[in-house]
């Protein structure tokens, strides 16, 4: 049924004074300083505010074109709503999807499931960066251009390519789950391209440096500093995994540690005989022989175990005479994995020890260094059959070329 206009009538529009406007049913007619009448619309369609200029009277635009534009927009919105999930009246915004995504992950993912330990990182990436930048977009209308613009701005604001890539990984995972949960169709997902990350120079500790680090840890004022270093060098475990070890999760007979909250899901961590012996002696000296290996030292701690050993490790590195800018806790993991490679262990076996999700991820830690590389390259070593003399391999002089 056609709308009846009481204010925005043709006589009223003709009599508009410069700078004045009339608005009715989402249509605005305004007399410009040039004497022209400009028509625009300002409506809500599918939960979104649409405000746009339709055109000027001098261009042949009338109130009828503005009415037709509104009808076309609302028809398109009605057709769009045919794809809505059951019980929804409007499409999800990215912000709404992010909230539902995190809530669903936390409700359906347990400590034994892959990715459980990474939920906190996903929440941080979404709440601090992705939602503030992309939250107002409709989930099924988030474009490749918007994603690329987000990544470009983050880098311009000072974020490293690796940091932005981790945020884009969260975005990619959200869209994969959204398709799985039938929030949208696969073809409505944007293309998410990660940028190349510069290869960082990796620090590997020599056997002498490892001993220096252990000696420095033993003399540190923190009584558990040596234990942290011993595990890091003997098990190739991550910083956070070490601090979450419980004594009742250590199988001393088989030299295994159960890791319920690893980056790639729960796993069984093999340990060396020396480390198993150290841990057994440590357990025998504890009053609580089944609790946390690194219990929290502060009464207001949010976790029952320590959350970081960064400050202690910094002291230890300095006492060992090493550069703390290069030697971080993760260097112990790098070192242990590289030693496995040098021992010619096969990659699937190393993967069992390191806990990497995929072999491709493990390859980043297989560095071009060590005796095994020298032995391999020696297999193709070949020299020249006869000595080279300077006289035979000197370019001919101009006079010699002329005579020839």
Model description:
It is a single chain. With about 400 residues, the protein is of the alpha+beta class. The chain is built from 16 helices and 7 strands. The protein folds into 3 domains: about 10-85; about 95-190, DNA polymerase, domain 1, CATH 1.10.150; about 205-375, hpI Integrase, Chain A (Orthogonal Bundle). It has helices spanning about 10-15, 65-80, 95-110, 120-135, 145-155, 160-180, 205-220, 225-235, 240-245, 275-285, 310-320, 330-340, 345-355, 360, 370-380, 400-404; strands spanning about 20-25, 25-30, 35-45, 50-55, 250, 255-260, 265-270. The protein has a 4-stranded antiparallel β-sheet, covered by helices on one side. Strands 5-6-7 form a 3-stranded antiparallel β-sheet. Strand 3 (about 35-45) and strand 4 form a beta hairpin. The longest helix is centred in the middle third of the chain and has 20 residues, at about 160-180. The model has no long low-confidence stretch (mean pLDDT about 85).
